[in-house]
Design goal:
The protein has five helices and six strands; from the N terminus they run αββαααββββα. The protein is an alpha+beta fold.
């Protein structure tokens, strides 16, 4: 095998992997947008009403509802057990805190659950606009990958993935704060 055929094979393999990674990102976002209203079959947070205060109500986390929600998310086929276990740990931690420090007759955001655990404070900024997003960087080494996906100048995201049984699964999804940090550095220098 010549060096040129090895190089060509490597480029074809990289293009194939990049295509699979892109499909995983877009596939998950499309799936979630389509299924979003059917994923939570029972309230996860119970004991309060967002519009008024109920008397003698104690806020708690309905862990069976959490498990059903996570089971529904797993059905997407796009999320790894790492991703799902991280979500479960967050809900369990909030539940433990609420058991230790009960919120009675509480009206407001639940500490630790102030925003959507997957998409943050403005899920619609992602779900309504990801079709116009751009893949900026894709790195893959063996069965791990890092994908930078920008939806807009202000909505930039990172996906970390693992290949399991020939399929790429999302381990992590979160904001890429690189440009924000650069803007902060520039602002700091201007202020000096």
């Amino acid at each position: 095998m010549s060096i040129w055929s090895t190089f060509s094979y490597g480029q074809q393999t990289e293009a194939l992997i990049n295509g699979q990674l892109k499909q995983t990102v877009i596939g998950f976002l499309t799936w979630y947008k389509d299924k979003e209203n059917h994923l939570m079959t029972a309230p996860i947070v119970i004991g309060f009403n967002e519009d008024s205060i109920k008397r003698d109500s104690v806020v708690s986390i309905n862990m069976p509802a959490v498990d059903q929600y996570l089971s529904n998310l797993k059905k997407s086929g796009y999320l790894s057990d790492v991703f799902l276990n991280d979500l479960r740990r967050t809900y369990a931690s909030v539940s433990d805190t609420l058991n230790k420090y009960p919120l009675v007759d509480y009206f407001g955001p639940i500490p630790g659950l102030e925003s959507d655990l997957i998409f943050g404070f403005e899920p619609e900024a992602i779900l309504d606009h990801f079709e116009t997003g751009r893949f900026i960087k894709i790195y893959s080494i063996y069965n791990k990958a890092l994908v930078k996906f920008d939806i807009s100048e202000f909505n930039q995201y990172l996906f970390i993935m693992t290949k399991v049984n020939s399929k790429w699964l999302i381990d992590y999804f979160g904001e890429d704060l690189t440009n924000l940090e650069k803007m902060d550095e520039k602002t700091s220098r201007v202020a000096e």
